[in-house]
Design goal:
By secondary structure, the chain is mainly alpha-helical. It has 4 helices and 2 strands; from the N terminus they run βααβαα. Strands 1-2 form a two-stranded antiparallel sheet. The chain is globular.
Length: 138
């Protein structure tokens, strides 16, 4: 029996944003590997980034690839998507925390800082309320 997790509407966009970052990371790694002169001798090197790419695509398929006018909660199979969900949401959490330290001299800095504070609070509340842990070593 699988565990179903309901991702609240306010969090779905955060998850999607984090997943797009993970998608880019996997794609970048595949791109880098594809330029190596010995790429054909060691095709197994592509295994992990392709696995990551497939996992990200599967979760994006489950939550939707694009924003909607009226976001709704989404149910996912947590047993299937846990590690990808955590990688995406904690990766975004790190980025939002960095944005909170934006130089106050930049135009729109206070607006960015406040937006990031809200995102961090929403993500941390979601992680805590669902007893989801950031992966070890991150």
């Amino acid at each position: 029996m699988s565990t179903t997790l309901t991702i609240p509407a306010v969090i779905v966009g955060h998850v999607r944003c984090g997943l797009h970052g993970e998608l880019g990371q996997a794609g970048s790694e595949i791109d880098e590997l594809s330029t190596l002169p010995d790429r054909e001798a060691y095709p197994e090197r592509f295994g992990e980034p392709l696995r990551q790419l497939d996992a990200v695509r599967a979760l994006l398929d489950a939550i939707g690839w694009g924003e909607t006018e009226n976001p709704e909660p989404v149910e996912i199979d947590l047993d299937c998507h846990r590690s990808t969900l955590l990688a995406a949401i904690t990766g975004l959490l790190d980025i939002e925390r960095d944005y909170m330290d934006v130089d106050p001299g930049f135009e729109g800095a206070e607006r960015q800082r406040e937006r990031s504070r809200r995102a961090v609070r929403e993500i941390e509340d979601f992680l805590a309320s669902n007893a989801l842990q950031q992966p070890e070593g991150d």
